[in-house]
Amino acid sequence: MKIFLNLIFLSIIFYTASSCDENIYIPSEDQPGRRDYEWNIDTITSFNPLYRLWGSSPTDLWAITSGNPNENIYHFDGTQWVTGTYFILYAPYSIFGFEYNNIYIGAEQGRIYNFNGEGWIEIAALTKDGHKDIGFDNLWGTSSNNLYACGAYPDEQGYANNSVIAHFFNGNWMMLNTDGLFGIVEHLYENRPDNKIYLQVIGGRNFTDSTHIYEYSQGKYYRLYSNIWTQGLQADISLINGEVYFVLGYEITKRVNNQFQTILRVDNTNFYQRIWGRNSKDIFLMMTDGLAHYNGKDIEYLFYFNKTPRTQIFGASLFENDIFFLVYESQTGLNLIYHGKLK
Fold it and tell me: How many domains is the chain partitioned into structurally?
């Protein structure tokens, strides 16, 4: 189990029925994102890295870590970060929510927790093929009745090669068939323009230290891209304003007519193949030495890390005037929250 937990953490290092009219996606006219942020940095004391961040507002943020069960959930009320008020028994791996009083955590041993505004309650202990030792590495959904939990459980050698996708719909959890997938399902999103589901799988049998991107349709998985973790070849997916963006090496793309369409090529070898954003002209890019921003015309740095290399951004929460980035300095062991506020 220790090997499995280590692989889950590595995945974080190298890496959330309608009418016809409601299903029509009409893109808005994207406005260039501003860059005039005032920055404040909070240091969170934790013996373990904080590796997931989610918030409903700038005064309601959550971060999670493994280790001591009494200190595995951190909460920010707009003034300070506090731990010890809330905790869960099983190590949390992922967090995602819809409102301040409707938040979910995916944890080890197939556990799913829900926060109802007062406390965290275990709502599911899921298994797959009789296996209980599932780690849910990420959560995403469109509503509390359409929620996905994804991750993996260990194979005979203890490696996280057995992919898992659980879907909560119509009041029930269902395990999707993941035959043909090998590795940790790290991200899964629905792309609003074409209503297709795309997912990212990392590691995997005979594909160690690799990323694979799939389209999921009618119970089958179609591999769209695959490459190793060597810098410059890494891949990722991100959901920005309802659209899935694919990071394929130095290119940021979308899927248009079943083809990758490049919207931006990053001509900087410090690009670390991870992005977050509000729209197509307001995208934040993780670099090996800091955080950069694309406004539809050019790319500029917003801040540089205090320590390099090996500093990571493990998560982000973006709001209209506030942005938060969860930064971990492996050299110092510091967990830092970079809070940018528009002037």
Answer: 1
